[in-house]
């Protein structure tokens, strides 16, 4: 995981002024010059920064965002004439773990629900809703089970059907049929014996 910012900002060691520069934010990843080294030279008395010594002039306001080549920095303090600030590709991954810190910051940044809720807030609300709806479903299930049992008891009372009694009757009828079958078999054997004796 690339935790370091792909670009880094520095102030020249030879700067005379007290101005400092923030780590750059990438504001346009599609900018073709995103990884092109950039130098901001401070000019007085015009209080502007010139990009790469010959580029456009950018007015300086203490702490205001300066956007160049898809990156944005803020310079605070008092720059002196000739002070230099650089924004260069961070090819070896050194730095302040800006990407990692930015990702960790997403947890509490209010970026959902129109900027009023963080990911952490939304996750907590989701868990609460799931728990509440699960509890409602369990209560509904128990209520439906009671209604079903009551309906079955009412049906059985109206139809006067007792399953135990019906099972006992079936066994009694089965035994009666078996006895009748044995009687018919004995009668057949006796009749066959009589016919044999008369021959």
Could you characterize the architecture of this molecule?
There is one protein chain. It is built from three helices and eleven strands, in the order βββββββββαββαα. Helices cover 43% and strands 22% of the residues. The strands form three sheets. A five-stranded antiparallel sheet has the order 1-9-4-5-6, with no helix packed on it. Strands 2, 3, 7 and 8 form a four-stranded antiparallel sheet that branches. Strands 10-11 form a two-stranded antiparallel sheet. By secondary structure, it is an alpha+beta fold. The mean pLDDT is 87. The protein has two domains: 7-105, no CATH class; 108-160.
**Low-confidence regions:** none
Q: What integer value in Å does the Rg equal? A: 46 Å
Strand order of the largest sheet: 1-9-4-5-6
Shape: rod-shaped
- Estimate nothing, just give the exact number of structural domains: 2
Mean pLDDT across every amino acid position: 87
Helicity level: 40-55%
**What is the H/E order?**
EEEEEEEEEHEEHH
Number of strands: 11
Distance between the termini: 109 Å
Beta-strand percent range: 15-25%
Output the structural class.
alpha+beta
- The number of distinct helices, counting runs of at least 4 residues, comes to 3
How can the largest sheet be summarized?
A: 5 strands, antiparallel
Summarize the topology.
Blueprint: E1 7-11, E2 20-21, E3 25-26, E4 38-43, E5 48-51, E6 57-59, E7 65-68, E8 71-76, E9 84-89, H1 98-105, E10 110-112, E11 117-118, H2 119-159, H3 163-198
Antiparallel strand pairs: 1-9, 2-8, 3-8, 4-5, 4-9, 5-6, 7-8, 10-11
